[in-house]
Design goal:
Shape of chain A: globular
Strand order of the largest sheet of chain A: 6-7-8-3-9-10
Helix content of chain B: 55-70%
Number of strands of chain A: 10
Distance between the termini of chain B: 48 Å
Number of helices of chain A: 12
Number of strands of chain B: 2
Strand order of the largest sheet of chain B: 1-2
Chains: A alpha/beta (about 280), B mainly alpha (about 270), C alpha/beta (about 290)
Distance between the termini of chain A: 47 Å
Strand content of chain A: 15-25%
Oligomer: heterotrimer
Radius of gyration of chain A: 20 Å
Largest interface: A-B, 42 and 34 residues
Shape of chain B: flat
Amino acid sequence: MAFIECKNLSHVYNKGLENEYKALDGINLKIHKGEFVTILGTNGSGKSTLAKHFNALLQPTAGQCLVEGMDTGDEKNLWDIRGKVGMVFQNPDNQIIAAIVEDDVGFGPENIGMEPHEIRRWVTAALKAVNMEEFRHFAPHLLSGGQKQRIAIAGALAMNTECLVLDEPTAMLDPVGRQEVISTVQRLNQRQGITVINITHFMEEAALSDRVLVMKQGKLVQEGKPEEIFQNIEAMKKLGLDVPVATELAYRLQKKGLPITKAITNQEALIEALCQLK
Amino acid sequence: MLTDITLGQYFPGDSLLHRMDARVKIILLFFYIVGIFLFDNNICYGLNTALAVLLVFLSGVSPRMVLKSIKPLWWILILTFVIQLFTVPGEVMAKLWIFNITYEGLVKGFLISLRLVLLIGVSSLLMLTTSPLMLTDALESLFRPLKPFGFPAHELAMMMTIALRFIPTLMEETDKIIKAQKSRGSDIGEGNFLAKVKSMIPILVPLFISAFRRADDLAMAMEARCYHGGEGRTRMKAMRMHNVDGRAIVVMSLYMIICGTVYFML
Amino acid sequence: MSIEIKNLKHIYMPRTPYERLALDDVNLTIPQGKITAIAGHTGSGKSTLIQHLNGLLEPAEGQVLVDGVSVIGKKPENKKARRSVGMVFQYPEHQLFEETVAKDIAFGPRNYGCSEEDIQQRVKAAMDFVKLDYDTYKDRSPFQLSGGQMRRVAIAGVVALETPYLVLDEPTAGLDPVGREELMNGIVKLHKKKNNTVIMVSHSMDDIARFADHVIIMAHGRVLLEGTPAQVFSREDFIHQAGLEVPRVTAIVKALKAEGVAVATDVYNMEDAVKAIWQALAKKKAGGAGKC
């Protein structure tokens, strides 16, 4: 059974009103346990709306979204689903609730009624997992953007989450912060088997994932491994997206006549391919 | 500078005061304030001041931080002092135009100002040694008995937590919007009253929009983390009274008795 | 004539426990009619620096001269100096407040005391620059636009001031790839047309290499490096010291060189990288097989 499954999922905002707007249109997808999936798409393509279905912040207006077989449309599954699927949003300032780091990380566990000593244990473990232990007693507004996002990740981990849905977590960060967040997410995926769904505009991040989903105007238009998706550079540019720099460089060299046969998504692969041509 | 505030700024530490139960601290602070107003003779003022100094010392918070929290009320202190100085009748020390400065006025002005300083200083000590969350938890806990009468203790506490969390963020935001509008040639706070009010619109509109956007985001983030009101919620930092609280209560009771004795007997 | 920064020093919250030296003896001349990029790690002082350029912050020591006149002071010429520097903050869409797009863009020019006729013309020109059709959007509420469109309205609000100097703090932050590309191209187009001086804070070394004529690298409140992109990016040691990276194509050719391929490493954009690698590998073919 897939961990998350969308069956013909559609979402219409302001249904029946003048400004009715169809944000998602017949999405079918499966996400398996332990996978690292990236969702790409321009602004307004429906990525965020889709992400909010994964932990039942939104319910489909047609079709279904299932998390471990539980229907997100069924009220009684709400807390189980939100406990299993944690969310991290774009703006680091707008998702930290408490004025002290450890209090914020403990917010989720408190909501699900964990025992105090259990909460402490989970909070400590979560802060350790994102390498933020020494900031336990800090005020969040004194932290950098990357550190704040790691606190948000810890907040989800402290609830024993099995899946992290990250909605453009690095969009507002500088390159250092971006790197901090992405390597944290990657480590959690690889070491703790946490399922990751990352929404991003940065192609280099997408190249790190197991699978890439591409959205356009509320529809899922492409799906595949990063090397498959990025192979068709023209199609990506037509969708208003981009490809990693290494991919573009390989493509241009290929066009010029260099016989690069392998699909390239990162610097290491490109160097290796070029060295073989020597 | 807009971001330059002490209110609601917790200073982490592990002093005696930090370790006390926030509920006990609030109640003892209440008694201390009652004491300040009730026992207004010189010896009690001395004792109150000594206790305040001792508390600052015990808290490990730098005295400068405590003084800084008094700074915004500087003009109130001066005003109080000056009013007392000129209005209290008694032995005239000096004459200033039509006003008489009396010895009694000088003493009274000093004592009333001292009372205010103690009041604010010790209150800010509570803020400095208690994390905002502990503070709101304590208030929630203290007001819980009122819940059957429809008093929204949890909701108010949560509102306070969020307000405290977002004070620095919104301060920063305001600073940024002011600078952005200034860069567009806006003369903020210049001209007559009407012009002044008008010049605030380009700041207030974006500020409110931003606050609403943040509120929306935050509500979503809270919901995503299973927040559903106070029902069935537990606390990481369960409030429990320790030995230090018991001792503090004993010390405070004795102190009040001493002050009372001094006040009524002498 | 240009912007000169002399011995600039700035201290945040002086005489408090939070006192922090944000800028320490910064000396710079921003070249006239060029695109200057400022890069630096968060907290390097770059945002503090740009806020001095139109007098939003007052220096503790030193001064900023725009066309020879200080931006600090109450005299009309000081005000004129301040007003010749347009400033686009990060996420500028958060400063929109008017009922309609046209009114919001007109806010700046009106404060500058332009005539109604002039204002309308400036609004039209600014909207044209950010590619928002005047007739379609002028009466729309800015708050009903998409995020990218709001960004463009906000930038138009500063462009309409038609200042000889334009400062932009990370103008493309948070936009999608098309949005980033369009905005950067728009800024370059405006620069070419008006020959204005552009000062841009950016985190993207790729963008800096592509668009900037002059680069300033800041670290710990000081200027660490300054020069053309080629001069600056050739000092990889300094770049790393500032907590930054070289452009990604530069990193690739350097890695290739480390593997023993005789490739030129002074390349900073895609076109040059393609050329350099092509040349190196074509040379290799002529010279026979090498080891990798």
